[in-house]
User: Fold this.
Amino acid sequence: MEKELNTKYSKMLFRGGGGGGSIQPGKEESFHVEYQIKDNVDINQVKKNALEGTLLLLDGTNVIAEIPLKK
Assistant:
């Protein structure tokens, strides 16, 4: 992934996303995010790494939930 420059934290370069707005407790929501990928990478390895990762839900810098993506 390409990283943002001139930032205090190491962050991936965000390109956009969308969904229903906010995540309501006890409700199912659909959303998507898009990040910039470097040229000349193995896209199958990117997919494998992404699907073996964990989604972190943040409130500011506080992690409020960790959701494994292996399902």
User: Anything to note?
Assistant: DSSP finds one helix and four strands in the chain. The longest strand covers residues 62-68.
